[in-house]
Amino acid sequence: MTALRFLKSRFDVKTTLQIPFCFRHILFNLATNMIAKEQLKDKIRDACNVAEEFTKLYYESIDRMRHQLSRHYMDTALLVWNGTGSVGKDQIQKFLEALPTSQHTVASLDSQPVLEEAVSGQFTLLIQAAGSVHFGTGGSGETKPFHQTFLITAQGDKWKIVSDCFRLQEAIES
To answer: Lower CB count within 10 Å: N or C terminus of the chain?
Structure first.
């Protein structure tokens, strides 16, 4: 909804014309801000919904179909996994396939849209997930807390990872 349409929906034409110009300008700016806030709320709600769907798909893929994981990454994506970096979806795939089998449990999830001015108008999201990961099969192996940050962007009708930073949460030795 445009600011002008918003104002017209709140005031009839006769009333609007009786309002002094400076106040019409203020009302116009207020209406514009209200619309911008509603649009931001919508983007944040969309970001949260996408984050839930995306992380569910991602962790199912890494835990059960790791050989297909590269399809989630852009060709030029960056992965930093516990301090080890890989660039390009083929290198990322190779690195992730070398990791032991895993089972992720997400306990916390947050997402927000990235300002369009920062990403040339491309709809992009920052997603943060935290939880625990069990490495190994069955009762053997170990479980550790993790934190992962994704920067994803829309490519056609799919979400692709631009940047992925995974970190096991281990105590700092003093």
So the answer is: C
3-state secondary structure labels for all residues of the chain: CCHHHHHHHHCCHHHHHHCCHHHHHHHHHHHHHHHHHHHHHHHHHHHHHHHHHHHHHHHHHHHHCHHHHHHHEEEEEEEEECCEEEECHHHHHHHHHCCCCEEEEEEEEEEEECCHHHHCCCCEEEEEEEEEEEECCCCCCEEEEEEEEEEEEEECCEEEEEEEEEEECCCCCC
Question: What does DSSP say about strands 102-113 and 124-135: parallel, antiparallel, or unpaired?
Answer: antiparallel
- Write out pLDDT tens, residues 69-94: 999 999 999 999 999 999 999 999 99
Report the C-alpha gap between 79 and 96 in whole angstroms: 10
State pTM to two decimals: 0.75
Residue with the two structure tokens 């099969």: 137
The C-alpha atoms of residue 165 and residue 29 are separated, in whole angstroms, by: 40
Which residues lie closer than 8 Å to 2 by C-beta, 6 or more apart? 35
Residue type, 30: L
